Amino acid sequence: MVETGNNLASRAMLVRLNITQWTARKTDKAVTHEVARAKGAAEELVKVNKLLMDKAALAGIVSAVGSARTFHYANTLPWSDDGARILPAANFMAYTAGLRKLESEFRAAADTFLEQYVNHRTAAQRLLNGLFSAADYPEPAEVARRFSWSVSVDPLPAADDFRVNLGADDVDAIKAALQNRLAESIKGATADLWRRLAEAVGHCAGKLAEVDAGGKAGIFRDTLIGNLRELVAILPRLNLADDAALEAMRAEVESKLAGLNPQELRDNSRARADAAAEAKVIADKMAAYMEVM
Asked: Structural domain boundaries of the chain?
């Protein structure tokens, strides 16, 4: 199916996920100067950074932010370098529901950290010893303002909606350029989906076929199949171009690999070998197709 700009604009939108957090890092200019002088190095080439708190203090926040960004990228498609991503309308409900849950986790982690901020700062004084400086630590209210979460949604541009006071030829040229941009974006988004599926299947094939130096089957986690199952479930909602070949490949992965039982594959060497061979066949098929895309 060939998408026009207006068709695409009615089936998708642009989203930006913006998360900020206090990094608890600081460049120590005094120590930087000392190190550069002691080593005879040019000071502009030296920078001494220090963590203001034990990593464990912010671990919950770092984990929540990482999960949110992973979810955001998995549920959207590439658009531009300014942070915007394409969100198909078919995936809007699942995306917003997932982000609401992840935002709650982020805010809960931030609240827990803020409740213990003064204690973490006291512990840091002992850990940093001579490198500790009270001036490095903002007041709790200021630290709280460093944590933020926002999602912005904008319409995709549509070439026919372009209006400006220029000559007809100039307007037509701009519309054509915009239409080409939209076409290239949807082509890139589709290629991204092929890449995701190919990487997941290739990883599955490799792990299932893996053996150690003694010839014993390698270890794999349940997520090897679980991640594949999640991917084939979301792909139909992201397939904006209605790429029939991609859908056919997705369906094949779903029927032959995504339904496998990880524990059975561990317990049954024959089943594991068959699954590895099946995954390899599909991976090779996808690689051959992607070469000529």
From this structure: 5-155, 161-291
